[in-house]
Amino acid sequence: NTKELTIDPWVSISIPNWFSDTAAFDIDVDNSDNVYVYGSRNIKVSKFSPTGTPLWTYTSSWMGDDWYGDLAVEGNGNAYISGKNHGDAQIQKVSPTGVPVWNNFVAITNLGNDFQELAFRLKFNPSKTTLVTAGSYMLARVGTVNLTTGDVVITSYCGSPSTATEIRSICTNPKGQFFGVTCKSGTTLARIVGFNDLPSFFL
Question: How much is the mean pLDDT over the chain?
Protein backbone atom coordinates (compact mmCIF):
# COMPACT_ATOMS: atom_id res chain seq x y z
CA ASN A 1 0.00 0.00 0.00
CA THR A 2 1.65 3.24 -1.16
CA LYS A 3 -1.03 5.62 0.17
CA GLU A 4 -0.14 7.88 3.06
CA LEU A 5 -2.16 7.39 6.25
CA THR A 6 -2.82 10.56 8.25
CA ILE A 7 -3.86 9.85 11.82
CA ASP A 8 -4.35 13.46 12.95
CA PRO A 9 -3.67 16.51 10.77
CA TRP A 10 -3.62 18.87 13.79
CA VAL A 11 -0.50 19.86 15.65
CA SER A 12 -0.14 21.56 19.01
CA ILE A 13 -0.98 25.24 18.57
CA SER A 14 -1.50 28.27 20.77
CA ILE A 15 -4.89 29.95 20.63
CA PRO A 16 -4.54 33.52 19.31
CA ASN A 17 -5.44 36.40 21.61
CA TRP A 18 -5.70 34.17 24.69
CA PHE A 19 -3.69 34.69 27.85
CA SER A 20 -0.92 32.17 28.45
CA ASP A 21 -2.07 31.34 31.98
CA THR A 22 -5.63 30.33 31.10
CA ALA A 23 -7.27 27.18 29.83
CA ALA A 24 -9.90 26.00 27.38
CA PHE A 25 -13.04 24.58 29.00
CA ASP A 26 -15.28 23.46 26.16
CA ILE A 27 -15.20 22.50 22.48
CA ASP A 28 -17.76 21.97 19.70
CA VAL A 29 -17.94 21.67 15.90
CA ASP A 30 -20.28 22.84 13.14
CA ASN A 31 -21.51 20.97 10.04
CA SER A 32 -18.42 22.05 8.10
CA ASP A 33 -16.10 20.52 10.75
CA ASN A 34 -14.88 23.91 11.95
CA VAL A 35 -13.84 23.71 15.60
CA TYR A 36 -14.89 26.17 18.33
CA VAL A 37 -13.00 26.45 21.63
CA TYR A 38 -14.34 28.25 24.72
CA GLY A 39 -12.42 29.53 27.75
CA SER A 40 -9.59 32.01 28.55
CA ARG A 41 -9.26 34.48 31.46
CA ASN A 42 -12.08 36.65 30.16
CA ILE A 43 -14.64 34.55 28.34
CA LYS A 44 -13.55 33.97 24.74
CA VAL A 45 -14.48 31.78 21.78
CA SER A 46 -11.97 30.89 19.06
CA LYS A 47 -12.84 29.28 15.72
CA PHE A 48 -10.50 27.01 13.77
CA SER A 49 -10.73 25.47 10.33
CA PRO A 50 -10.89 21.66 10.02
CA THR A 51 -7.11 21.66 9.54
CA GLY A 52 -6.43 23.81 12.62
CA THR A 53 -6.00 27.23 11.02
CA PRO A 54 -7.12 30.02 13.41
CA LEU A 55 -10.05 31.94 11.88
CA TRP A 56 -11.12 34.38 14.60
CA THR A 57 -11.33 34.95 18.34
CA TYR A 58 -14.31 36.63 19.98
CA THR A 59 -13.95 38.19 23.44
CA SER A 60 -17.21 38.62 25.34
CA SER A 61 -18.18 41.92 26.92
CA TRP A 62 -18.57 40.25 30.31
CA MET A 63 -16.13 41.52 32.90
CA GLY A 64 -15.66 41.18 36.66
CA ASP A 65 -16.60 37.90 38.38
CA ASP A 66 -17.04 35.90 35.17
CA TRP A 67 -17.99 32.25 35.60
CA TYR A 68 -17.77 29.84 32.71
CA GLY A 69 -20.97 28.18 31.59
CA ASP A 70 -21.17 26.25 28.35
CA LEU A 71 -20.75 26.33 24.57
CA ALA A 72 -23.21 25.11 21.91
CA VAL A 73 -22.74 25.52 18.15
CA GLU A 74 -25.40 25.37 15.43
CA GLY A 75 -24.71 23.47 12.24
CA ASN A 76 -24.40 26.77 10.34
CA GLY A 77 -21.73 28.06 12.72
CA ASN A 78 -23.66 30.30 15.09
CA ALA A 79 -22.05 29.87 18.52
CA TYR A 80 -23.88 30.27 21.84
CA ILE A 81 -21.92 30.83 25.04
CA SER A 82 -23.23 31.04 28.59
CA GLY A 83 -21.78 32.23 31.86
CA LYS A 84 -22.29 34.37 34.92
CA ASN A 85 -21.37 38.05 34.98
CA HIS A 86 -21.66 40.24 38.11
CA GLY A 87 -24.05 37.74 39.72
CA ASP A 88 -26.34 37.29 36.72
CA ALA A 89 -26.52 34.53 34.16
CA GLN A 90 -26.08 35.50 30.52
CA ILE A 91 -26.14 33.87 27.11
CA GLN A 92 -24.51 35.39 24.04
CA LYS A 93 -24.92 34.50 20.38
CA VAL A 94 -21.91 34.91 18.09
CA SER A 95 -22.22 34.76 14.28
CA PRO A 96 -20.20 32.35 12.08
CA THR A 97 -17.83 35.26 11.36
CA GLY A 98 -17.23 36.07 15.04
CA VAL A 99 -19.59 39.04 15.36
CA PRO A 100 -21.86 39.32 18.44
CA VAL A 101 -25.55 38.97 17.55
CA TRP A 102 -27.27 39.35 20.93
CA ASN A 103 -26.64 39.24 24.66
CA ASN A 104 -29.67 38.29 26.74
CA PHE A 105 -28.56 39.82 30.07
CA VAL A 106 -31.99 41.45 30.53
CA ALA A 107 -33.96 38.39 29.45
CA ILE A 108 -32.48 36.22 32.18
CA THR A 109 -32.15 38.76 35.00
CA ASN A 110 -35.83 39.60 34.68
CA LEU A 111 -36.61 36.05 35.80
CA GLY A 112 -35.56 36.80 39.39
CA ASN A 113 -32.68 36.08 41.74
CA ASP A 114 -33.26 32.32 41.81
CA PHE A 115 -32.22 32.22 38.14
CA GLN A 116 -28.87 33.90 38.61
CA GLU A 117 -27.01 30.79 37.48
CA LEU A 118 -29.61 29.39 35.12
CA ALA A 119 -27.17 29.16 32.23
CA PHE A 120 -24.76 26.56 33.66
CA ARG A 121 -25.41 24.34 30.64
CA LEU A 122 -26.46 24.68 26.98
CA LYS A 123 -27.55 21.78 24.79
CA PHE A 124 -29.11 21.43 21.34
CA ASN A 125 -31.50 18.67 20.36
CA PRO A 126 -30.15 16.30 17.66
CA SER A 127 -31.56 18.40 14.79
CA LYS A 128 -30.17 21.58 16.41
CA THR A 129 -33.50 23.37 16.20
CA THR A 130 -34.07 23.68 19.97
CA LEU A 131 -31.51 25.08 22.43
CA VAL A 132 -32.01 24.24 26.10
CA THR A 133 -30.33 25.95 29.05
CA ALA A 134 -30.27 24.58 32.60
CA GLY A 135 -28.75 25.32 35.97
CA SER A 136 -29.84 27.83 38.66
CA TYR A 137 -28.57 28.63 42.12
CA MET A 138 -31.61 28.30 44.38
CA LEU A 139 -34.11 26.40 42.24
CA ALA A 140 -33.22 23.98 39.46
CA ARG A 141 -34.81 25.12 36.22
CA VAL A 142 -34.72 24.23 32.55
CA GLY A 143 -35.60 26.64 29.76
CA THR A 144 -35.60 26.93 25.99
CA VAL A 145 -33.66 29.74 24.31
CA ASN A 146 -35.17 31.73 21.44
CA LEU A 147 -32.42 31.57 18.83
CA THR A 148 -33.51 34.88 17.27
CA THR A 149 -33.96 37.06 20.36
CA GLY A 150 -32.19 35.22 23.19
CA ASP A 151 -35.27 35.21 25.41
CA VAL A 152 -35.51 32.24 27.79
CA VAL A 153 -38.80 30.47 28.43
CA ILE A 154 -38.86 28.19 31.49
CA THR A 155 -40.21 24.77 30.56
CA SER A 156 -39.34 22.55 33.55
CA TYR A 157 -38.86 22.93 37.29
CA CYS A 158 -37.10 20.36 39.44
CA GLY A 159 -37.54 19.96 43.17
CA SER A 160 -39.24 22.22 45.67
CA PRO A 161 -38.17 25.58 47.12
CA SER A 162 -36.61 23.81 50.11
CA THR A 163 -34.34 21.52 48.09
CA ALA A 164 -32.14 24.20 46.43
CA THR A 165 -31.01 21.93 43.61
CA GLU A 166 -28.76 22.77 40.69
CA ILE A 167 -28.69 21.11 37.29
CA ARG A 168 -25.05 20.39 36.54
CA SER A 169 -25.28 18.57 33.20
CA ILE A 170 -27.83 17.87 30.47
CA CYS A 171 -27.95 15.57 27.46
CA THR A 172 -30.42 14.52 24.79
CA ASN A 173 -31.31 11.22 23.15
CA PRO A 174 -31.97 10.66 19.41
CA LYS A 175 -35.68 11.36 20.01
CA GLY A 176 -34.88 14.86 21.22
CA GLN A 177 -35.78 14.15 24.86
CA PHE A 178 -33.59 15.83 27.46
CA PHE A 179 -32.10 14.46 30.68
CA GLY A 180 -30.29 16.30 33.44
CA VAL A 181 -28.27 15.52 36.56
CA THR A 182 -29.05 17.59 39.66
CA CYS A 183 -27.33 18.04 42.99
CA LYS A 184 -28.73 19.24 46.31
CA SER A 185 -26.84 21.91 48.24
CA GLY A 186 -25.19 20.64 51.41
CA THR A 187 -25.87 16.94 50.82
CA THR A 188 -24.68 14.08 48.63
CA LEU A 189 -28.16 13.57 47.19
CA ALA A 190 -28.19 13.42 43.39
CA ARG A 191 -31.03 12.90 40.99
CA ILE A 192 -31.39 12.14 37.27
CA VAL A 193 -34.20 14.24 35.86
CA GLY A 194 -36.17 13.32 32.75
CA PHE A 195 -37.71 16.27 30.96
CA ASN A 196 -40.43 16.04 28.28
CA ASP A 197 -42.55 13.97 30.75
CA LEU A 198 -39.77 11.40 31.25
CA PRO A 199 -39.42 9.80 34.69
CA SER A 200 -36.97 11.06 37.31
CA PHE A 201 -35.12 8.98 39.88
CA PHE A 202 -32.61 9.42 42.67
CA LEU A 203 -29.11 7.97 42.72
Answer: 75
